[in-house]
Amino acid sequence: MEEAASVPLVALTAWQALVEIGRLKKGQKVFIQAGSGGVGTIAIQLAKHLGATVATTASAKSFDFLKEIGADVLIDYKTQVFEAILKDYDLVLNSQDNKTLEKSLNILKAGGRVISISGPPTPEFAEAIHAN
Fold it and tell me: Does the pLDDT at position 128 exceed 90?
């Protein structure tokens, strides 16, 4: 019951981030960090349902599962550097620390968006990086 109880929260988080705020559309590219986590697994499936190309980070042991649920690009966070692999993304769903958030900005195409569920971006963060 405890595991089932977590589904509404992670599903709502994924929906709000990708649909309501991110406005993810068919044909766009989205980078979902921590794909094997609760929000990540729901977000991958939702993004695929919406017709997006999905990149994610996880450990290699999760890759088979993540492929099954729709991930197109799999990056082993232990051995690979996502910002060296990904480019021209429309949307990033950030669930990591500020350092990862800052690196995520480098993979966006012009006009791309970052939605963070773990802290900034805040107006102060945007001002600090001269994004406003």
Answer: no
Q: How far apart are the first and last CA of the chain?
A: 44
Average pLDDT over residues 36-60: 97
Give me the pLDDT at residue 98, please: 85
The DSSP result for 41-81, as a single string, is HHHHHHHHHTT-EEEEEE-GGGHHHHHHTT-SEEEETTT--
Who contacts 58 (Cβ-Cβ below 8 Å, separation ≥6)?
Answer: 34, 35, 36, 40, 66, 74, 75, 76, 77
Predicted confidence (pLDDT) at residue 132 exceeds the cutoff of 80: no
CB 9, CB 117: distance < 8 Å: no
DSSP assigned state of 39: H
